[in-house]
Amino acid sequence: MPSVQVSNSKDGAVYTTSNGAPVAEPYAAQRIGTTGPLLLQDFHHLDLLAHFDRERIPERVVHAKGAGAHGYFELTHDLSDITSAKLFTEVGKKHRTTVRFSTVGGELGSADTARDPRGFAIKIRSEQGNLDWVFNNTPVFFIRDPAKFPHFIHTQKRDPQTHLKDADMFWDYLTQNPESAHQVTILFSDRGTPDGYHNMHGYSGHTFKLVKDDGSWVYTQIHLIADGGFKTLDGRTAGRLSGENPDYGIQALIESIEAKKYPSWTVYVQTMTAEQAENFRYNVLDLTKVWPHKDYPMRPIGKLVLNENVQNYFAEVEQIAFSPSHSIPYFEPSCDPVLQSRLFSYPDTHRHRLGVNYSQLPVNQPIVPVANFQRDGFMSINNQGARPNYQSSIVPLTFVKNKGSINGAPRDEERHVKHERWLAGAYWDLSEVSELEFEQPRALYTTVMNDVDRKHLVNNLVDHIRGVKSKEVLARTLSYWATVHQDISDRVAAGLCIPGGARPLPNVKPASAAVRFRTQHV
Ligand code: HEM
């Protein structure tokens, strides 16, 4: 494994101090006589305690609990008609890949079967750098304005005073931000409790861009469809497992790979041209909506296979650092505002969680040499040796392109085409809510779900909404569901033994009055 340093595990090595000196008595601290105090000279003991005292690093602020494994991404279909990215044009080539699955809201020790979206983060190591697909197991998300993210997440975390999770906070937030309805309908279906981490699909959610070197481009959404199907647990079973085996998902992944039942996914893209985006019923940059498959068909592109368990959880799963901004030429972000914010947030949190040189950790290292002018900082593992630490100032950059620079510094790669012209300008309040928000979750309830799914959705909602104490929040919650579908609201009310008939939320504009994204897609 080139980029992940596997420890010399289970090799029967001699026990040593951290400077490699053999230790004969690992269980003994040096002391004066049999009753005297300990000796400061006992480096082994000090080293042992001092390191133990520093074992913890900050856990991820979200997605703290997770499981990971290694495998590969293989391109099965050529995409050269829509992109010049090497990764998507070299059919048959396998790229070493690491995946980390996670729950979102709970702490590092929380239960794998909690009701939550699941993270599905993928690091594909290519010859043009690492491409991170930091996806979820749902095709949509709760927000479309990134300014809401910390507020929204705080409502899933513990109350600052009681340190308890709080159903009032949760429903109070959601019902005041009803663009969340699509994701919340999925969350309270059995898809909110997948059966293990690996029996689920993964989705980009966001719109990205695939670009060609002639400057042409298409919007794209990526789907990973589990070859074994999306398996779910009903709410009661998930609740029971949370107590009986909080690590159910980690265990199932390890055991599946050990038994050579390698989890695999077929990878698809949906694509949309700028013209299609202009005429799309929804805003193509609004990740609370899906692109209907009948209009934007799924095109298979590759396989993801996980066939190798990690050797060291901390080094290969806890220290892995994903970011949507870890990308490769010709695979670009769209201007979805949530995605744009994420481009900043992930490297920022990695510098806090893992340190400024997080990219040099073995699991994060690209397979290609890194050559730049980043130097020093805490724990620099690859400080780029004798290479100059500045670009020659004698010859302007434009003249040294591809020719090597005067001082032997890294040369610039030939510029790949980037999408850089932004016209337009529509700015508006992304919180503006119209009937458009409810069409897709309503269709999910009426046409995609069967009777059992609908029953489970209602049961799961009743179990959670039962915890709401405020009458106002409760009434608003029933209205929220009445806006999705009156039947859901009435059945939840019945389950809570309160009168039904809640009216839909006020201030929801008709679909025809929705302000849609009227920017020019360039
Ligand atoms: C993890 C921020 C939206 C998927 C994280 C982390 C942060 C974060 C700070 C912790 C990273 C770490 O410590 O390693 C945000 C912000 C968002 C946002 C600010 C919106 C404004 C999303 C969306 C998705 C997503 C829309 C999926 C489509 C993930 C995943 C992880 C993660 C999969 C876990 C990565 C891992 O396994 O290490 N997010 N997030 N996030 N986020 Fe987001």
From TrEMBL:
- Which InterPro entries does this chain map to? Catalase (IPR018028), Catalase_AS (IPR024708), Catalase_clade1/3 (IPR024711), Catalase_core (IPR011614), Catalase_haem_BS (IPR002226), Catalase_immune_responsive (IPR010582), Catalase_sf (IPR020835)
Indicate whether Glycoprotein appears among the record's keywords.
no
Q: Which UniProt keywords apply?
A: Heme, Hydrogen peroxide, Iron, Metal-binding, Oxidoreductase, Peroxidase
Q: Where is this region: Disordered?
A: 1-20
Q: Which reaction does it catalyse?
A: 2 H2O2 = O2 + 2 H2O
- What family does the database annotate? Belongs to the catalase family.
- Return the protein name: Catalase
Instruction: Please list the residue ranges annotated as the Catalase core domain.
Output: 16-398
Q: Which GO terms describe its molecular function?
A: catalase activity; heme binding; metal ion binding
The job of this chain, per UniProt, is described as: Catalyzes the degradation of hydrogen peroxide (H(2)O(2)) generated by peroxisomal oxidases to water and oxygen, thereby protecting cells from the toxic effects of hydrogen peroxide.
Q: Does the keyword Transcription regulation apply?
A: no
| Organism of derivation | Boletus reticuloceps
Active-site residues? 63, 136
Matching entries from PANTHER family are given as: CATALASE, CATALASE T
